[in-house]
Amino acid sequence: MFFMRKSFFILLAIARHGGLSRSVSFSTVELAAELGVSQQSASRLLRDCERQEYVSKSSGPAGTKVQLTEKGAGVLKAVYRELALSLFPSQKKRSLGGVVVSGFGEGKYYMSQEGYRKQLLDKFGFEAFKGTLNVNADSAELESFLAGLPEETLSGFETQERSFGHARCYRVSVRNQPCVLVLPSRGKRPDGVVELVASFSFRKKLGFVDNGKITIEATG
Amino acid sequence: MFFMRKSFFILLAIARHGGLSRSVSFSTVELAAELGVSQQSASRLLRDCERQEYVSKSSGPAGTKVQLTEKGAGVLKAVYRELALSLFPSQKKRSLGGVVVSGFGEGKYYMSQEGYRKQLLDKFGFEAFKGTLNVNADSAELESFLAGLPEETLSGFETQERSFGHARCYRVSVRNQPCVLVLPSRGKRPDGVVELVASFSFRKKLGFVDNGKITIEATG
DNA sequence: ATTACTAATTCACGAGTAA
DNA sequence: TTTACTCGTGAATTAGTAA
Questions:
Q1: Domain that holds residue A198
Q2: Burial B148-162 (b: 16+ CB within 10 A, else e)
């Protein structure tokens, strides 16, 4: 957890300047002043962050442009989660309400890929049912629900036909059945729609139907 | 802001173990393992935190007991705030609803103390009206409202008669009138009750009465 | 202006160990 | 077992510059 200690405050400084969502101009002199180190150290520390893939940057005599990577943003989120749990232990959001929506079969397609099935088995210990349950939730509620959960990542991979992106996963449960909430990074989906993966079919085993209400619970 | 860089992760580790609200046993060996440093470094770093008054601790051959001070907790809250603003810029809570309650005149007593008046003038630039408006808010809402605001502190002081504790302050506004939300640390008050201080009387100038609704807005 | 190299320096770290 | 000291080493930092 604390291996990213040395990079954290640089990432935070970049995020403060908006580097989470876009590339920002950020000279090493400014960065140095904010952190209270020399320009030389700022330059070196930034390069260390790039080596660890926390940021992507381009720099030259015209200045530096920098943006946090997913991995870098993950560092900030992980610390945010720890802080939130420590500072406001009472306020952890333990459940998330949503509505079942139709997924047009992509869930089945993705869950048939060995690249994902293998990782789900390794990380979560079950053979995934070849299909997902798509759930629509309020995106702000989803955000704060997920902020309180430990995050795991399914890596992207390539097949002969195409390449598959990585996905963020969270252990949750529905009606006391453990399952995994998956947020694919690829394929811009509507805000607030997530996929649930389990060893079984939510529709067959638990009787969920389109437009039905569902409650997702945090586990652990 | 980043002067506490070196201590932050130690404070976070202590908070994870519950050291925010109570004294926790925490051997330097454990701490070292969590941070990925040697026992010797953990011991030294902990001592640095004590010197900076981020923690209070007692240690000896039987082990170490440690608890975060207000100042130490303030470090974690400040970082939490920065993270929250960067990660979820949309979600900042900008206003807080509450109900005016009767304060039995202690507000007038405190606001008559030169020790507080001087600090309010220095920090906020106004002569405080000798009285406060007590407001009752939902304590969870209050917590998340304040988490998004920069915090300032009025120091405690001594008079011939008694000693006065320190207080946490936040710049806010009510009906577009800038004022200061004060949370005294002393004198256990009911959860969710705060005091508003301004250059004027809320009751006379704005017509607030007991049990009336009030909305406090974040400024800046 | 910048960034970022190399060299000098410092100060943080951990080994050894006392209490 | 603890905690925490001293001290040698080297990684991290800054100064001085080049580009």
A1: 92-218
A2: bbeeeebeeeeeeee
